[in-house]
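If your schedule permits, I should be very grateful for your opinion on a structural question. Please examine both parts with care and let me know of anything in them that strikes you as inconsistent. The record follows directly beneath this note:
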Amino acid sequence: MSPRELVVRTLEFDCPSRLPRQLWLLPWAAQRYPEKAAELVRRFPDDIIATPQLYKTPLPIRGTRYEPGTYVDEWGCVFMNLADGIIGEVKNPLLSDWSKLDDIRIPVERLTVDADAVRTFCRGTDRFVIAGVVPRIFERLQFLRGSENLFCDLAQQPPELHVLIHRIHQFYLKELEVWARTGVDALEIMDDWGGQRAMLISPALWRSMFKPLYREYVELAHRHGKYFFMHSDGYILDIMPDLVEVGVDAINAQVFCMGLEQVGAACAGRITFWGEMDRQHLLPRGTQDDIRLAAAQMKKSLYRDGGLIAQCEFGPGANPDNVWTFFEACEDA
């Protein structure tokens, strides 16, 4: 099977010949372990890739995202970074008070995708291709308002909050529509909804405010014949059935944080688990036997003639030998 066929069969629960794989190699790891990182990429090539961000109009960004110093993204949000290889934080949000609401500039440059260049890229590979853009409405609200302000907003529900959400959501629909008209196999969104043991907002509030938006994103993708992938860190077990209901095809989530058996009981066979191996405890400090056992447990709990992608993040603290062992174990599974 080609890599693309492996992934499609996995998403369709149609007995792929092996687990598809994808390594998220963060700059932190590439800088600290260049030789081991290169060997991982050579030995376990990704079956899933993202397109480059190919725009006809350059994005108005300043600085470098993964280097110490200041990085300004295309929305104008300023990230302060103190360390190499990781992303910084927004310390001074643009929309610190609602009087600045109409000053927020939508980055229309992101709509100038070079569709022909994207199609050429997709035709040039036999791997499964995800659009190289990741809308993130909850996180964008935090970047613009600041996390503390936003959580107060969600409790108080000022009308300005709904105006801001509407503007961001409508832009993301336009952006996903542009990418859906290219040759990619899937669209993707991300929002980190979970803490260690519970969601950052109540599941009821999520369902009333954000679930309808996600449903629109998924329906847009499916109208264009694209699969829909999503990423969220933290404990999100409470809304996993909702993600299945709205039609998310694959979820990248911290399944060990939530409990493999609990996640499997809730959703196995109904959504594809796009990883991930535990990066809180096992990848940094586990033994190789621990990793092999965890990989076997993932397949037992989550695999149903498909529905599981061998994905893990090689990022801060991870032991490169454990990353290698994970992919090796999944190849033999």
User: Anything to note?
Assistant: The domain at 3-332 is CATH 3.20.20.210 (TIM Barrel).
